[in-house]
Amino acid sequence: MAEKLITCVVNNSVKQGSKFWGEHGLSFRIKMGDTCMLFDTGQSETVLLHNYGLLGACPRSLAALVLSHAHYDHTGGLQSVLTQKPDVPLFAHPDIFRPRFSLRDGEYRSIGMALSQNDVSRLANLHLSAEPMEVLPGIWTTGEISVRNEKEGRSKHHFIAVDNGWQADPYRDDMSLVVEDSAGITVICGCCHAGLLNTLAHAARHFKKPIIRILGGTHLLNATPDELQHIIAVLRDEYGSPELYLNHCTGDAAFVALSNAFGEKVHTFPAGASLLIE
Ligand SMILES: [Fe+2]
Ligand SMILES: [Fe+2]
Fold this sequence. Notes:
Layout: E1 4-10, E2 27-32, E3 35-39, H1 45-54, E4 62-66, H2 72-75, H3 78-84, E5 89-92, E6 101-104, E7 107-110, H4 117-123, E8 125-128, E9 134-136, E10 139-141, E11 158-162, E12 165-168, E13 177-180, E14 185-189, H5 196-207, E15 211-217, H6 225-237, E16 243-247, H7 252-262, E17 266-268, E18 274-277
Parallel strand pairs: 3-4, 4-5, 5-8, 14-15, 15-16, 16-17
Antiparallel strand pairs: 1-2, 1-18, 2-3, 6-7, 6-11, 9-10, 10-13, 11-12, 13-14
One fe (ii) ion binds next to loops.
C-alpha cells in the first residue's frame, strides 16, 4: 500500500516554534505521492489558507475533500476550498445540510454549514452517503455510526429544529475517516460526537482489521473520571492499546488520563504536526 503522510492543517493549538496559526477548529491533509485530500476545513478561510500555504500546497491540487460533520469549526473554510478547486469530489453524510444550533443565554445560534446543499452542489462533485465510501485508494469514510451502545460525544447546548420546537442534535451526520495500511487501520476523528467507543466499534466491525492508531478530536471534554477509566479499559482490552494522536475537542483531563494509562503511546497532534503511515 502507498505511503500516506497525515498532517494537521488546522487545530486549536499549533506546533511550537512553527508559523502555523491556531483557531478552534480542525482540518487534516492526507498526502499519497502527488495526490492529496482534506478531511475538514477548519473554522475560517484565513487560517485554513495560511496554514495550507505553509505546507507548500494550495487547494487547487486537491483530489478529494471529506467533511466529518456540519459544525462551523469543521466546515468554515469550505467556500474557499470550493472556489479554488471547483468540482472537487466532496464526501459527507446526507444529513450534513440540516441546520444546527447552539443554545446559549436563551438564544439559538446557527452553528452548522454556512452553505446550502444547492450552493455546494453547484461548486463540488457531491457524494452523500450514510454508508462507508472509498475516497481514495485505502481511505474510507466510516459511514454513519448507527449503533451507539456507548456514550456519545454530546454537548447539552446542541439542538436541531423540529416541527414542534427543538430536539437534542442526534449527530447522525458525524463520521470519521479510516486509513488502511498493511498492519491495520488508522481512525481519524473530527469531533467524534457519535462517541469514541461507538466509532471504534463501528470501524472494527466494518473494516475487520485491528485499529492501530486513533487521531483527532475525541470529544472527551466533559468525560467524568469513571467514564475515562472505562474508555481506557476498552482501548487496552478490546483494541490492544492503539497509538493516540489527540487534539481539538479531546480535553486536557482526558489527555492526562490517557497519557497516564498509555505513556508514550499518547501524543498531541497540533497544527503543523505530521505522521507518516507506511
Ligand atoms: Fe462538532
Ligand atoms: Fe469540533
